Amino acid sequence: MRKFVIGTVSSALFVPLISSAEEKKNWKVHGELSYVKTSGNSDTETFATKVEANWEKTVNRLLGKGSFLYGKTKNTENTNKLYLLGRWERLLTDRLFAFVQGDYLKDKISGYNYKTVWSAGLGYDILKTEKHTLKGLAALGYTFSDYKDGPNKDYTTGLAELDYKWNIRENLVFKQLLNYQVNLEDTNVYYIKSDSSLQVKINANFALGVGYKVFYQSKPPTKNIEKTDTTFLTSLILDF
Fold it and tell me: Alpha helices, DSSP H only, in the chain?
C-alpha cells in the first residue's frame, strides 16, 4: 500500500497582448495551479487552476477571471467545473463606479450544462488604504441556464457582492469574496458563494496560498445534488 501527494505548481496561464511598455504597467495578472494525487486506501486525483487579470487606467477598469476544477476517484469523474467572468467598470467619482459584467458556469456534475448571467449595476470602493480594500457591488441582470435534467430556466436576477483584501504584513495577504444571487421571479431560489484565501509571499512574484471555497444553492437543478459544495486547495501563486 502506498500513498503520495504531488504538491502544487503554478504559472500565469496567459499574458495579455499589450502594445507598449506603458500599457503593460496597467495590467496585473494573478495565476494559481494546484494538483493533488493520492493512491493506496484512496485513489483520487484533483486539478485546479485560477487566473485573474486586472487593468486600470484613468476612469476605466477591466477585470477578467477564470477557474477550472477537475477531480476523479477510482477513475470516475466526480468534479468538472469551469467558471469565467468579465467585467468593465467606469468610475463616476473617486469611489463610485458603474459596471457591466457577464459570467459563465459549466458544471454538469451539479446539474448545469451551462448557466450565464449578464448584469449591470453600481459599485463603491468602501475602503481604499494600503492595508485594507473593500469593494461593494449591486446589480440587476438576467440569467440564462441549460439544466442537465429538466426544462431550462431563464429569469431576472439580483446580485450583491463584497470583495475584501487585507495586507496583514508585507508578505502576508488575506482575501475574502462574498457573492449573492437571487431569482427575482422566485426568491426562494438563490445562490451564495464564498471564496477565502491566505497568501504568503516568497518573493516579489511568487507566493504560497491556501484557499477555501463554499458554494450554496437553495434549490439544485437536479435531484440528489447536495446544496453545499466546499473546496479546500493549496497552491503556488504567480503575480506580475
Answer: 21-24
